[in-house]
Here is the input.
Amino acid sequence: MGTVSKALELLDYFTKARPLIGLSDIARLADLNKATCFRLLTELAENGFVEQVGTSREYRLGPSVLRLAALREAQVPTRDAAMPVLQALAQQTGETAHLSLLIADILRPLAHAYSAAHATKVMLEDTETLPFHATSSGLAVLAFQPEAFRNVVLAKPLAQLTSTTLTSPTALRARIAEVRGLGYAESRGGYESDVHSMAVPLFDALGRCSGALAVAALGTRMGEAQRRMIRHALLQAGTEITTLWGGTLPADIATLWRLAA
Amino acid sequence: MGTVSKALELLDYFTKARPLIGLSDIARLADLNKATCFRLLTELAENGFVEQVGTSREYRLGPSVLRLAALREAQVPTRDAAMPVLQALAQQTGETAHLSLLIADILRPLAHAYSAAHATKVMLEDTETLPFHATSSGLAVLAFQPEAFRNVVLAKPLAQLTSTTLTSPTALRARIAEVRGLGYAESRGGYESDVHSMAVPLFDALGRCSGALAVAALGTRMGEAQRRMIRHALLQAGTEITTLWGGTLPADIATLWRLAA
DNA sequence: GGCTTTCGGTTTGTTATTTGAACCGATGGT
DNA sequence: ACCATCGGTTCAAATAACAAACCGAAAGCC
Here is the structure.
């Protein structure tokens, strides 16, 4: 792996749950030599990608990312365009809605919206990466990726996160084929045992699946009626976001969604 | 300069005016060997910081920056917190308001807001970097930086952008001292000949000046009454943003602003 | 059609940067 | 007083970056 990737990877260790990281910590996390890590961080800091805060000299993300994100949003309005739809989806379903993007072969949550409808809701503050095999978003994305991508993902070790997590590649392939046939994915406690979720894939201008839109609810609230209502809202919101992104639904998905709605 | 800095610098060549750049172009811009540039871009692309678009294989900023910016905003609400104030400032003054941040010793515009009050207004879409010596924002920031920083900036060649641009370091030092005495800066056509602007410095939690807030108007509209009105609005908005950032106005500035308001 | 330029991308031997272990002094807990 | 750990530094050894030349494809241009 090149030096640049190592430096960029350091940025990934910053999360909502861990916004400040010291030199030694980040070196351990990234499994890098402290000297190397120091040099990388210094260079990132010189360019405003991280900054040192207070007397403890811990690092946090710097202001440079703001400018770049503003620029990216100006060119490809991803987050800003999807936010209102996401909020409406949460409102409408009374559950937690979230949007993830496939970035560098990893599925990362980009934004989420809560509903005030219930006192209990699914929180997902500090999730850094969504496992493909154990979340509805992951399955939805996986179902619409090239076969090669699926092979890579399913070849890796698949963590048994709950008692119901599917971890057998062959069983997963069956699930995924099913998802492709339905046009949406569902996960019943595969990630956290009392959380059920449904997700639809999102598509970019070239018809490639570039992310997923999901609604996560407490399993105890997920009856058949609720499931139907959420599916309906999801398909609608998924169409909307894909359109806002200037994306095109593959014809077969469009048909599936029309029928399922 | 290290490899990481070179890679990160490539990201700076993307602007609103030039959102897509080809390999050869960016190599020329950055004055790098094409092979080097290719390797850097490939690594940036692997990490989602840039992506290749369409058949021309040009590069643009990637989705990774979105996630990082969302994280940064969650920790240090800079842009999101300032936006409403910025918009109110534009509305209130009837002119163009903009906010810049000092990033890696360069002053970069981060956000701006227009007013609908006049058919003619100052547009600033594709400004990449604000020259310290020729803009009110630059002067405002410069006035509240350590002496060492000023020396570095004033030692560089200073471009004569209009007929009224100050370029003599001694004259600029006098202007800057004046700005420090007033607590705000003004530029009359120093950047573009028919644009007048006023700016106030913004401060972070440690009392360091980390950016500037400015209002830019057509010179023909900048009478004494207008100038007084804009100054008043700027001082108020500047106080507000600094507070929102969890920043502290240095005591002397606070006093100056109270008197000037 | 054929000539030339420029594009994105690759290959190569040489060169310069990155790396890792050991080492600082400072700090804080026991 | 001690020990562990912090952020940061040093320097020889290993590795990755570099420049130049090259490739096939596409786009002007005659």
Remarks:
- The mean pLDDT of chain B is 93.
